[in-house]
Amino acid sequence: MPEYRYLKEDVIETSAEFIAAGALGIINKWANDNFTASPRTVLDQITTANRLFNGILDRWKLS
After folding, report:
1. Cβ partners under 8 Å of residue 19, min gap 6
2. Per-residue pLDDT tens digits for 7-63
3. Whether 63 contacts 6, CB under 8 Å
4. Which phi and psi (to 5°) does residue 7 adopt?
5. Strand (E) positions, 1-63?
6. Which domain of life does the UniProt lineage start with (predicted)?
7. CA angle, 40 then 42 then 45, to 5°
8. How far is CA 5 from the centre of its chain?
9. Residues ≥6 apart with Cβ < 8 Å to 6
10. What is the three-class DSSP state of 8?
11. Long-range contacts for 54-62 (Cβ within 8 Å, ≥24 apart)?
C-alpha cells in the first residue's frame, strides 16, 4: 500500500497479519452464528475494523 511506504517492513508485515487475523475472526464469528448476519453486515464490520486500524497507522508514522 503506497500510502504506508513510510512504515518499516516488519511493521507492514505485522500489520497485515493483524488485519488478516481480525478479518478471519469476524468471519469465524459469523460462521459460528450460523451465518445469521447478512454478508453486507459482515463486510461492513471488516471495513470498519480496517478503517480504524488504518487510522492508527496514520498516527504512527515511523521514519
Report:
1. 49, 50, 53
2. 788 887 888 898 899 999 999 999 999 999 999 999 999 999 988 888 877 776 654
3. yes
4. -80, 150
5. none
6. Bacteria
7. 110
8. 17
9. 61, 62, 63
10. coil
11. 57/4, 57/7, 57/15, 61/6, 61/7, 62/6, 62/7, 62/8, 62/11
In this structure, what are the phi and psi dihedrals at residue 38, rounded to the nearest 5 degrees?
-75, 155
CB 45 within 8 Å of CB 29: no
Residue recorded with cell 461492513: 44
- 13's grid cell: 508485515
> Is the pTM value of this prediction over 0.85?
no
Domain extents in the chain? 15-61
Long-range contact set of residues 21-25: C-beta below 8 Å, sequence gap at least 24:
22/46, 22/49, 22/53, 23/49, 23/50
